[in-house]
Sequence to fold (139 residues):
Amino acid sequence: MKVINSEGKQVEIDVFFDKVGTKGRPKKVLSEDALKLIENLARIMCTEEEIAQCLGASVDTLLNSDNKELFRTAIKRGNSIGKQSLRRKQYEVAMKGNSSMLIWLGKQWLNQTDKVENTNSFEDLTVLADLLKIDDKGK
Fold:
């Protein structure tokens, strides 16, 4: 089976795995090309299942003892870069005057809310009640 690698070239799936071991079935260990592809797919928030499918492997293979740390690191790096790009674009849209984005970012980053807080205390109402009693007596 052939797939497109991180440079846009069509390659055989086996390119994404280095085969390690001499006894029994060789273990599939992620290659540098695979790690680049995983990072690029994680940038656009692909799931582990989608990434595994692109690599022609199962999620279990990607999470085996030989690959787990490499796979998780590539996903984390890709997700971080993707989130940074998204945040940058949201900020740019907001700074161009998009009021919805300005409001949303204010709520997310500045803890701003639409809630109207009632600051009246019981003591304030007591004073008001006393004033009303005075008016009743004065009539």
Observations:
- The chain has a mean pLDDT of 82.
- The longest helix spans residues 68-95.
- The beta strands are 2-4, 10-12, 17-20, 27-30.
